[in-house]
Each structure stands twice: as structure tokens, then as C-alpha cells.
Specification:
By secondary structure, the protein is mainly β. The protein contains two helices and 18 strands. A nine-stranded mixed sheet has the order 2-16-15-14-11-12-8-5-4, with no helix packed on it. A hairpin with a 6-residue loop joins strand 15 and strand 16. It is globular, with a radius of gyration of 18 Å.
Length: 263
């Protein structure tokens, strides 16, 4: 067991995100987004690999679709996320990519993978978010992200098409960088599995959900895995929260801290 008191295998991280009062499960609808040219391809049950613009590569496993299907993937301009930036504290520096897959809602029998070049710091942990509307987002469920520092690239695995963006967890960057120094095998490659969304409360304007995030560091002995728990809270629940909205709890066996984006 490592001596570090900052992160342990039993760590629980609860990230509080504030959402609009709309139902978290409502259908994705259009936003005012600026996009580059669409990458249009036809995929088949045989699967295949497709080279897109700007170094993006789409990998479609066999039997991901039942029949030939026309799809498109657009790499969007971050300006379409401005209201989400304002609400949740994201910014251009921690957004790795912003994409839109069409037809919206297309569900794959086997998740497809999108690989793209990205810049990040040692020890960074990225998450994949799904855009709900022009002011709201949620952590994408049943998804996987792989960070490959040797190739300077990210691979996201998604079960359906929508609008997604990847972002580094900057709130935890300082803490993770310290842990990276004490355990160098955490500094390079990692894989994040974003699990199912479980609802703790779903009444009226208040929705509270929790999701398990399993992070594996393959360069560590026996592929070290740590579990995080992200809790998402809708705006209608905010007046009843004990801690302020958009803050988060870091809890280990030896300490418990409540932090905000400012500190």
C-alpha cells in the first residue's frame, strides 16, 4: 500500500454539477454550434476503420450495425459550448475535443471508437461529457476513455451518437500531479470506464444521480485500478444541498475536504 495520503484505492470523489431544471434524460436537441466540414461515411456490419479530418480515426467493430448506414462526425468549434463553460467552469484550455455524431440517437450494437490527437499533462484524467442542450451537460454513461501518452492521443468508446466533449478534470489536477510524483506509473497511460447512471432521487425538479468511474493505470504493477464516484445534482436540488453547488468532496481514510473551483 502506498504511503500517499492524497489518493487511495478506497477514494471517493463526488463531483457536484449543477444542471438546468430540464429532465436529465430528455432528448438531445440542437444547439447554436459552429462546426467544420462533416465527415460523412457509410458503415456496414463488416466494420472497418475510417480516416477523418485533423488526425481523427473512427473504428467500427464488426456487427456494430445491422445494415449499411450513412453516418457523419463533425469536429465542432468550442464556441458552441460557451454557456456550458459559464455554468460549469470549463474553458478552452481543458477541452480536448468537441464532436457531434449523426444521426443523433443512433445506438450501436457494439460501441464505436474515435481516436484523436490531444495535448495533456502527466497524470491528467479526462472525462467524456454528453451535451444535453446549449446550457447543460452530463457525464456520458457506459463509455470508455483511453489516454495514450506515448502517442499523444485519446480514444473514446461510445455506445450511441450525440454531441460529446472530453475535458481534463482540472479541479483535481494539482492533487493528481502530486500523486503522480510519488507513483510515477500513474503519470502516463490510463483508462477510464464511465459506468451506468443510478438515480438516488428523481422527483419533480430534483434529480440526483451517481456514477462509478473506474480508472486503470496499466503501467503500474498489476494494473492499478481506483474507483471514483461522480454525483450529478440538478438545479432544483441546490437549495437543499449541504455544500455549495459546483463544489466537490474528496474523501480518503485519513482526511475529508470540501473544495470549490476557486480553491
Amino acid at each position: 500500500m502506498r504511503n500517499s495520503i492524497i489518493l487511495r484505492l478506497s477514494i471517493i470523489i463526488i463531483v457536484i454539477l449543477v444542471f438546468t431544471s430540464c429532465n436529465l434524460l430528455k432528448t438531445i436537441f440542437g444547439c447554436d454550434q459552429s462546426s467544420s466540414d462533416e465527415n460523412v461515411v457509410t458503415i456496414s456490419p463488416n466494420g472497418g476503420e475510417y480516416i477523418l479530418q485533423d488526425g481523427f480515426v473512427l473504428k467500427v467493430p464488426a456487427n456494430a450495425v445491422y445494415e449499411e448506414t450513412d453516418i457523419s462526425i463533425s469536429i465542432l468549434n468550442n464556441s458552441g459550448l460557451q454557456q456550458i463553460f459559464d455554468r460549469y467552469g470549463f474553458n478552452n484550455e481543458n477541452i480536448l475535443t468537441y464532436i457531434e455524431g449523426k444521426p443523433d440517437g443512433l445506438t450501436f450494437n457494439v460501441p464505436v471508437e474515435l481516436t484523436f490527437p490531444a495535448s495533456f499533462e502527466d497524470g491528467d484524467i479526462p472525462l467524456l461529457y454528453e451535451v444535453i442542450n446549449d446550457t447543460s451537460c452530463v457525464i456520458a454513461s457506459n463509455s470508455k476513455i483511453e489516454l495514450n501518452s506515448d502517442q499523444n492521443e485519446i480514444t473514446i468508446s461510445i455506445p450511441h451518437f450525440s454531441s460529446f466533449f472530453t475535458s481534463i478534470i482540472t479541479k483535481l489536477r494539482d492533487m493528481l500531479n502530486i500523486e503522480c510524483l510519488t507513483t510515477p506509473c500513474r503519470c502516463k497511460n490510463n483508462e477510464i470506464i464511465q459506468g451506468d447512471r443510478d438515480y438516488i432521487c428523481n422527483t419533480g425538479d430534483c434529480q440526483i444521480s451517481e456514477m462509478k468511474l473506474s480508472i486503470t493505470f496499466p503501467d503500474c504493477d498489476e494494473s492499478l485500478t481506483e474507483d471514483f464516484f461522480a454525483r450529478e445534482v440538478s438545479e432544483g436540488c441546490v437549495p437543499e444541498l449541504v455544500i455549495s453547488a459546483n463544489s466537490y468532496i474528496v474523501e480518503t481514510n485519513e482526511q475529508k475536504q470540501i473544495r470549490t473551483p476557486e480553491g
